[in-house]
């Protein structure tokens, strides 16, 4: 196993929300004791439905927000606090791609200006070198000189996302966090951007934390994946293996919901009950009200994460007792 | 629909657009008036026929169109036209400086609130609420009554007028931009706060702020006029539009021109600036879409 570029050690993050005008402040646990690690040059996908805390996990991993408890190690050292000088200097090594590229770009500056901006901020090279570098980076993501001079509003969605990608990669970061980078794009453009991302990853030895809810994209891009439900990792393992043999009942339901070309071959698991609400978290295992295999124990005791022999980790009482997939014996 | 019809259709649409983007007559007149006023203020020394303190005692309270005094004279025989021209200069200087102070201070407070959040934000918003709730005229009356009224103090006081609007605008737009937009992205690139606020947020929200300035500007002219009218603003022998109206009111029945000339000027100028601001808002908002 190669060294880990980033490691989250039991991070928790909660936000306070007020219910009603005079209501009490209720803490909402967005992320609860999440531990993850991403190996150098690899892609770790983080999947889950909206509100499961995957974006918050990404922001904590990037140091944009500080975890309440737990710590984030980047290449073995803890991240400095946000908005300090040391933190700003680290931005060159870790970058982020956003869901909405138009919102992430300044509408009044040309694409070239914005791609050059990281070089300006970190004061690298002379003015003409910066321009050349920015143009070269734009070329690498498939944008030409005429795109460079245009405003974000004059580009298509895919081109904007390429511009955001160029801006993130111009400092040659080691870690790239993609927060649903393709979910706002057309399916055909999605494939282009994903392919571009994979090519660039190979070229630049990037490590990617890929946050998504699209299992098709995840299957294509990632080596490992983690499934989140209400702020916790319920299952984590090798992407292909996990998608082929999901162990956790929630992962099973997720995987069964992906349409398969050429007719349905699997039985579809339809979850009943309320979609998860982080403000009213069920006791015990958070998934038990919707779980098809829930047992009495699940309502009271939160399942611990157990690591199975093939590197898969699962947090489920049902799995601990009876491993339901073949990989467990191997 | 045939191709020719379609082309015809789009061309009419285009023509309509051209027509709508042409400047309406009222706005054009307003802009022209503002240009004239600025011109008057800048070249007051050259244009004014007399000094604003020059007395012509034999011809006191002369009616308009008296030879030598186009708009007549006041109770001391001072030329109303000359005084008007100098008044425009003083009033514009006060209003311009005050608007600038108000805009800069308000925007800085808004950015501070957006940047620090928490207690500092609460404090700034509390001050803004206080400013909005307090009748400004009474506040300035008391300050001027206690501290006397030198022109710099008067301008500084007027500069407090309306700062809370810029604060609210700047704060809310900066928070939106930082939460998930371009400013958050730039911060994440490692930019210092000053770069984020000055190079990215400020240019993006400047159109809104400029429109707000065109609203504050005439209000400050009116506020200055009211205070001068009450005798607490610009002090004689210096003259301003409100000051002229204030001292002219004693002769309203016998020599109404002393008061009407500056009053009319106030009305037309503030109206022109409001029209311009309205137009700017339409244009700049369109540009952002």
Automatic annotation (TrEMBL), chain A:
Gene Ontology MF term list: ATP binding; ATP hydrolysis activity
Listed Gene3D superfamilies: P-loop containing nucleotide triphosphate hydrolases
GO biological process assignments: peptide transport; transmembrane transport
Residue ranges annotated for the ABC transporter domain, each copy included: 6-255
Highest taxon above the source species: Bacteria
Pfam family, one: oligo_HPY
Compartments where found: Cell inner membrane
SMART domains (alphabetical): AAA
Gene Ontology CC annotation, any one: plasma membrane
Topology term for the membrane: Peripheral membrane protein
Keywords of the record: ATP-binding, Nucleotide-binding, Transport
NCBIfam families: oligo_HPY (TIGR01727)
Family statement drawn from the similarity comment of this UniProt entry: Belongs to the ABC transporter superfamily.
Name of the featured protein: ABC transporter ATP-binding protein
Automatic annotation (TrEMBL), chain B:
GO process terms (BP): transmembrane transport
Location in or out of the cell: Cell membrane
Keyword Zinc in record: no
Membrane spanning stretches: 23-44, 92-116, 136-163, 254-276
One Pfam short name: BPD_transp_1
Highest taxon in the source lineage: Bacteria
Topology of this chain in the membrane: Multi-pass membrane protein
InterPro entries xrefs: BP-dependent_transpt_permease, MetI-like, MetI-like_sf
UniProt domain ABC transmembrane type-1: residue ranges: 88-277
PROSITE patterns per record: ABC_TM1 (PS50928)
SUPFAM superfamilies: MetI-like
Annotated keywords: Cell membrane, Membrane, Transmembrane, Transmembrane helix, Transport
Assigned GO CC terms: plasma membrane
Family listed: Belongs to the binding-protein-dependent transport system permease family.
PANTHER family: OLIGOPEPTIDE TRANSPORT SYSTEM PERMEASE PROTEIN APPC, PEPTIDE ABC TRANSPORTER PERMEASE PROTEIN
Protein name as catalogued: ABC transporter permease
Taxonomic source organism: Mesorhizobium waimense
Organismal lineage: Bacteria, Pseudomonadati, Pseudomonadota, Alphaproteobacteria, Hyphomicrobiales
